[in-house]
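Hi! If you just cloned this repository, the fastest way to understand the data is to look at a raw example. We've pasted two of them here, unedited. The first protein comes first, obviously.
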Amino acid sequence: MPTPRRWLANMIKLVVLSALFVLLINVQGWYWQVLTLLAAGLSYPLLLQPVNLNLARPYIPQAVAAAKRQSDIVVNEAEHH
C-alpha cells in the first residue's frame, strides 16, 4: 500500500480508537473500566482490520503476484542446488 494510503488508514484508525477511549473514560468504577478496556482490546481487530483491508484491496493482486514470483525464484534456486 502506498504511503499516502497507509497514512489515511492510520488516521482513520486513530479517530476510531480515540472515540473508543473517550467513551471508556466515562465508565464509572474500576471493575467496569477494566472490563470495558479488556473488551475494547479484544475487539480491536474486529473494528480496525476492515479499514486496512478495504484500503489495501486494490493492491492485494499486485502483492500476491509479487509473492508468487518470489516463491518461484526460491523454488527454482532450491532445485538447482
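Ok, and the second one:
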Amino acid sequence: MPIGYTMFPVLLSILLASNAYASNNLQDEFIELFHSRIFENEINETLEDLKKTLRDGNPAIGLPSFDPYQLNYTDVNLKLENILTTNASASNIVVSGIPDFIATFLNLDIAELELNFTILFPEIDARTEYEGTGKLFQFVPIFGKGKASAKLANAEIEGYVKISFSKQISLLDLKLALTIGSAQFNLTGFMDDEEYSQGLVKTLDAYVGSIINDYKEEISEAVSPIIKDLINDYLKNKNFLFP
C-alpha cells in the first residue's frame, strides 16, 4: 500500500488544525506564545477530535471515514531506475489502523507557518486485489493477478510541512521519513504460481523492513513530492479558512 494513502488523511487533518490557529487575527506580540507549550492541552484535544473525524468522516469537506479506509481502484505504476518498473492496478483496497495514530511530537510555528511532527501507527493492516505486469532489473519479466496484504507494526513517520494560506491552503514544502518496527506480507497469484508467491512473501518479510529503515532518506526524497502533489491537488478550489 503506497504511503500516500495512509498519510494523506492524517496530514490533511493536521493542516486543518493548523489553519484553525493561523486564521485568527493574532497580534504580533502574542505570536511568541505559540512557540511555547501553552496550547499543549488544546492541541491534544484537537488531535483527539481529528481522530474522531477520521473514524466518522466529514462529508462537508469531502473526507470519507478512514475506519477503515476504502478505495475502489488505483493505478500502481512504479519506476525505480534499473531495478523495477510496473504497469499495474489495485482494487478493493482496505486499510485499517489509520485513526489510531499517536502524535509523539508536534511543533507548530505560527510565525513561519511550519509544522514538524512525529506520528506513530501502532498497527496498519492493508489488503487489496492486484493485477499487472512489469520488469525486474530491466529485463526479467514479472506478472501477477491475485490478492495481497500487509501488516505493519510501529510504523513511525517523521515529517516537516511548510504551509501557505495565500488565497487557499496549500503545501509549499513537505518531507516525510518512514521507519517500521516489523512488516508481514501475504500474496497470491504472483507469476501465476503459488511457490513463486510464497517465495516472494518470504523475501518481503525478510528484507522490506530493513530496506525501508536503511534507505529512509532516499525513499523520502522519492515519495515526499508525490504526496505533496496529491494533497495540493485535493486542496485545490477548497476553502478551509475559518471566519
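That's it. A detail worth noticing about the second one: Helices lie at 3-22, 28-31, 40-56, 194-214, 216-235.
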